[in-house]
Design a protein that fits this description.
By secondary structure, the chain is mainly alpha-helical. It is built from 24 helices and seven strands. It binds flavin-adenine dinucleotide, ligand DLZ and iron/sulfur cluster.
Amino acid sequence: MAKKNLILIMGDQLTPRLPALAAADRARDVVLMVEVAEETTYVPHHRKKIAFILSAMRHFATELTAAGWQVDYVRLDDSGNSGSFTGEVRRAVERHAPDRICLTEPGEWRVSRMVEGWPDTLGLPVDVLADNRFLCSREAFADWAEGRKQLRMEYFYREMRRKTGLLMDGDKPVGGRWNFDQENRKPAGTDLFMPRPRQSRPDDTTRAVLDLVADRFPEGFGDLQPFWFAVTRAKAEQARDHFLAEALPRFGDFQDAMLRGEDFLYHSVLSPYINIGLLDPLDLCQRVEKAWQDGDVPLNAAEGFIRQIIGWREYVRGIYWLKMPDYAGMNHLQADRDLPAFYWTGDTGMACVRAVVDQTKRQAYAHHIQRLMVTGTFALLSGINPRQVHEWYLSVYADAFEWVELPNTLGMSQFADGGLLGSKPYAASGSYINRMSDHCGDCSYDVKRKSGAGACPFNPLYWDFLARNGETLRSNPRLKPVHSTWDRMKPETRAAYRESAKTILDGLDTL
Ligand code: FAD
Ligand code: DLZ
Ligand code: SF4
């Protein structure tokens, strides 16, 4: 008799062509989906993120049932819910007596370890299938990395362009260049016609989940309302099409800009949908390429967007699986301060940080430059413990899963991996934020003041960061010019920076 499988689908695996489903038989096998306390609390997730994932899971289960699958769905508040993947798989094994368990490889190392223990603890064979929603398998990335002294994204990206054929003219990049990033650094101006991401209206299922999350996490971080994330594939595709038509044409030009009161600018806000499986990354890139071919978007926009997906997204996943579990414990700069409370409350006089934290609380979303150059740079300059910074980012964004969040935070943003991911730290003084945004006009601090009372904290902290980490960073050729500037400063100027920085660091929570 054919073997009966229990197919486990996790909250970030909501894709009909998922390998574990493709290998299954809907007449014979049982699909298991579980809402479990452990996944909702392993970091203090934003409440909107929890609601987004649970609602999308419920909708996906309904779609699978309609497509003829037998779905066993366990809700967070079902009596007897043991609260963990392991506990729920054990209970499902008792209910269905399968011959084996089958799943697609989990996105996070933590869960992967859990699954490795199941053959012993549950006494059944467990098949773990590679996740073919990524364009570069873990093995292919390890092969690419083998023997290389430096794992630079740019070279990986070129290989991915060749592999996918995206924006290629034979074996040459279209437009004669691989990368148009230099054209993507314009500050944005206020625009009455700024596009907004497409917003979905919550249906009965989402409303029930919102009530559940409100009830279960009354003190949790982040606003639940308004809730407008798409929670089905069809709605996510509408959001995608809206982005392609409305925002993509200007995505490139203003990729690094920040504007007060504009939470999204020309960004796609598609990462939550891609990361839980509602949108397919390759299909998305092919649509972006077609928009360029049809003359609807400029090449710098199409290339910039495709690079983020087949370049950065695949690259950070490769690094994660190559380097875990040691990666999570890295702390190259030995940063050991606690994360200030204003990362959770937004209660600070620094207008840029306040704006990003406020937006994060409202939307469970911030775009890349807000994450990297505001909250990220501030934590880097202040020497905040990278594990605390990592747990904050993993908690507060709807798109945050460790495989993508950890390398971005610990590597790109905090330089805690010693330069594996980026060739130099993203350290900057207030003038960067002043150039790329309009926050400084709204601030209790003066961006033009270099040190002393009222000076923008980023200014003295920038120089103090370089001086404090001099021993570790001086050998970095890309930092030579700034270290030379520091060395040429008058001793009293250097002393003023360091004195100011000390005052700031001693009273971080009061900024
Ligand atoms: P867009 O600007 O429209 O970009 C298009 C797509 O490209 C994104 O949807 C995303 O899928 C991909 N992308 C862009 N940049 C990156 C990147 N650096 N790494 C991986 N994919 C990228 N991204 C996450 O998906 N989850 C995270 O938890 C996450 N944490 C981050 C933490 C820090 C400190 C930093 C600096 C970046 C982080 N990123 C993370 C990367 C990036 O900021 C987000 O992917 C992006 O802001 C999502 O918004 P968007 O969909 O509007 O992106
Ligand atoms: C993030 C998350 C949350 C909040 N809740 C659940 C859940 O209840 N059930 C579930 O299957 N997945 C959830 N997830 C996503 C998982 O954390 C994610 O699938 C794993 O971390 C991937 O290894
Ligand atoms: Fe941020 Fe400094 Fe500008 Fe204030 S002055 S908004 S702290 S960069």
